[in-house]
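step: validate -> pass
step: tokenize input -> pass
step: predict -> running
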Amino acid sequence: MRLLAFAAAAAVLGGCAANASPTHPPAATVSGRVIYEGGPAGQTAGSQPARVGLKDSKRQVVARRRVRQHQRFRFIANPGRYVLVAVSGDAHCLQRRVTVKRAQAVTANIVCSVK
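step: predict -> pass
step: emit ->
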């Protein structure tokens, strides 16, 4: 009898756990590279590291990484709208808007123009 009651309770609790919604939405990833364009002839563009930041809709930096040429950056983010920004020496880096959906992997590169 106790075994039957235990099995019934386990089935009910197991069903509740399966239908419970998480308190935080599943995170997603935003990744990419900093791509350098231009620069003086005969020199390698992008020799300086870049500081890449992920800003939320309130323009607050929620994550940042330091990357070198040919390295990838990767951020874990909750669903929402973000802006990727980068600073690399005197290069002009374009901002990149990204929309992140739950459990999605977003790839977005940032282009920096070297003087």
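step: describe -> The chain has one domain: 25-114.
step: cleanup -> pass
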